[in-house]
Amino acid sequence: MRSSTDRVAELFGTDEVRSLLATNLPGYESYAFSEMARAARDRLANTSAHSVGILARELRRAGLAIHHARDTCQHAGEDVAQLVTFTRTGCDWWASTVDHDGPGLVQTHLINPCEQLLSAGNTDERDDGYAALRGLATRLGSHSGFTSRWTLHIDDGA
Fold first, then answer.
1. Which residues neighbour 93 within 8 Å (Cβ) at sequence distance 6 or greater?
2. pLDDT above 90 coverage of the chain, percent
3. Cα–Cα distance measured from residue 46 to residue 6, given in angstroms and rounded to the nearest whole number
4. What pLDDT is stored for residue 5 in this prediction?
């Protein structure tokens, strides 16, 4: 089984995301995806590239969520459509409360790929996509429609 860090790079480390991270972190272009994401999360807060830092934070959280779900043998539930809807509406709500495009980047580069994974027939892909969305749903838990069964107790350091 691949590590959750490698899995996050595989699932979300598209050329576009790598470019977003590398453009805002000169000198990190050759670093592993997880290291670029960690650096972006830590270094881009309160900068003009704050939105990219937000995306990096949520990608790291997705990796932790996948790792936690694997360690505790948790699998995709039957409420996939409800979880996708909640994370989308939660991100829309989040976007209405901030003055940056972090939530938009999260929708594009985290929720959209997860939705594709959830529609795949492969159990591992469904489980990983579900876990990543549960990590995001936990962060958005104060938004109406959150269901406690989505809660993941993970420490993302943020």
1. 140, 143
2. 70
3. 28
4. 58
Rounded to two decimals, the pTM is 0.90
Contact present, 128 and 66 (Cβ < 8 Å):
yes
Nearest-angstrom CA–CA distance, 27 and 32: 12
**CA distances (Å), origin 34, targets 12, 105, 117:** 11, 17, 20
Q: Specify the pLDDT at position 153.
A: 84
Q: Encoding tokens for residue 34?
A: 């997880």
Letter string b/e over residues 128-137, b meaning 16 or more CB atoms within 10 A of that residue's CB: bbbbbbbbbb
CA distance 16 to 23: 10
pLDDT in tens, 11-43: 999 999 999 999 999 999 899 888 899 899 899
Alpha helices in 25-143 (DSSP H): 33-43, 50-71, 80-95, 102-106, 112-118, 123-139
Count CB neighbours of 114 within 10 A.
Answer: 28
